Amino acid sequence: MTKSLKAPLIGISTYGRNGTSAFSLAATYVDAVRAAGGMPVLLPPGEPNPAEVLERIDGLILSGGGDIDPSAYQGSSHPCIYNIDSERDEFELTLARLCLEKDVPFLGICRGMEVAIVACGGTLVTHVPDEYGMEVQHRLVPAPGHLYPAKHPVKILSSSRFGAIIGKSEIEVVSWHHQAVRNLAPGWRVVAESVGDYVIEAVEHQHCSFAIAVQWHPELSPEDISHQRIFQALVKAAGTRKVVPIQDAIA
User: Fold this and answer.
1) In sequence order, which ranges of 18-172 are alpha helices (DSSP H)?
2) Selected catalytic residue, list 177, 178, 205, 217
3) Does the record bear Phosphoprotein in its keywords (predicted)?
4) Are 204 and 166 in contact (CB under 8 A)?
């Protein structure tokens, strides 16, 4: 069967529990989904049945946030690793795997891109400046303990599905990360790199109808149509997908 013609329901993962045991998420994610015609629903970590979550939504966004525990990708500790949250890691890694198995339209943003790759067996660069230097700043650190987004250009593979969505071969992005993909997982391919240091900035899955992940934050560029096309494409894919019973998808 197919979904009704109602606005597609787009699940967005939230940040983990904060110091007051509250879940939260930047409103820019919600705004971007609404502007694209979707209906956002927030998904806090800790849900005991991620498969049932995916039965109830039409598309998924894994949001940004703290770092994945390095043990998930045979990585090593680093002083710059922050906000490790095992509850969030477990929930999102499972969601990412199930999304690909069930072909649920999927968008990973920043941490969400890293989750998608690690979920499939890929690995990460623990701290970008250690291996790529500071020629391109992927986040600004004006003073100890203070982090701000940075802007830099990204080169896009025009022949990719992602390139067709963006409609340009190069765009400026708002970036806020210190890790990146090192080794791709099977099925994924690189579709964008940062200009200057060639850090992997976007990937797409070659066997899913819509599975894209970007290292930058397109939700922080609400006035730029190139970035908003990413959310529009996700909502469109979510509104036209076939519903596959979860038991068939993971059999």
Assistant:
1) 27-35, 50-56, 86-102, 111-119, 128-132, 161-166
2) 217
3) no
4) no
**Rounded Cα–Cα distance for residues 101 and 114 (Å):** 18
State both tokens at 39.
Answer: 């209906």
Active-site residue flag, 110: yes
Looking at residue 3, what is its pLDDT? 46
Q: Which of 201, 208, 219, 227 is catalytic?
A: 219
Tokens 């009704």 belong to residue:
4
**Long-range pairs for 67-72 at CB < 8 Å and ≥24 separation?**
67/111, 67/179, 68/93, 68/111, 68/114, 68/115, 68/118, 68/124, 70/124, 70/126, 72/118
What are the tens digits of pLDDT across the range 229-245? 999 999 999 999 755 44
Neighbouring CB atoms inside 10 A of 248's CB total 9
Catalytic residue among 92, 110, 152, 208: 110
- Phi/psi for 218 (5° steps) reads -65, -25
Which residue shows structure tokens 């820019």?
Answer: 28
Residue 208 falls in the annotated catalytic set: no
pTM above 0.85, yes or no: yes
